[in-house]
Amino acid sequence: MNEFLKENEKRLRVEFLPPYAPELNPQEYIWCRWKKNYMANFCPENLSQLIQRT
């Protein structure tokens, strides 16, 4: 990755974001609500159970 960035430094700029910043990534609010309400304590045994739950 560093080599690629070096080769393309004139057209690319790297932006470092904090590890968790929901104000910069609003979908985090949706995931948080989903994990607390719909998927809490749920461990599907297979893909069809996961699909049915979602």
Automatic annotation (TrEMBL):
<keyword id="KW-0255">Endonuclease</keyword>
<dbReference type="InterPro" id="IPR036397">
    <property type="entry name" value="RNaseH_sf"/>
</dbReference>
<dbReference type="GO" id="GO:0004519">
    <property type="term" value="F:endonuclease activity"/>
</dbReference>
<keyword id="KW-0378">Hydrolase</keyword>
<dbReference type="GO" id="GO:0003676">
    <property type="term" value="F:nucleic acid binding"/>
</dbReference>
<dbReference type="Pfam" id="PF13358">
    <property type="entry name" value="DDE_3"/>
</dbReference>
<dbReference type="InterPro" id="IPR038717">
    <property type="entry name" value="Tc1-like_DDE_dom"/>
</dbReference>
<feature type="domain" description="Tc1-like transposase DDE">
    <location>
        <begin position="2"/>
        <end position="48"/>
    </location>
</feature>
<keyword id="KW-0540">Nuclease</keyword>
<protein>
    <submittedName>
        <fullName>DDE family endonuclease domain protein</fullName>
    </submittedName>
</protein>
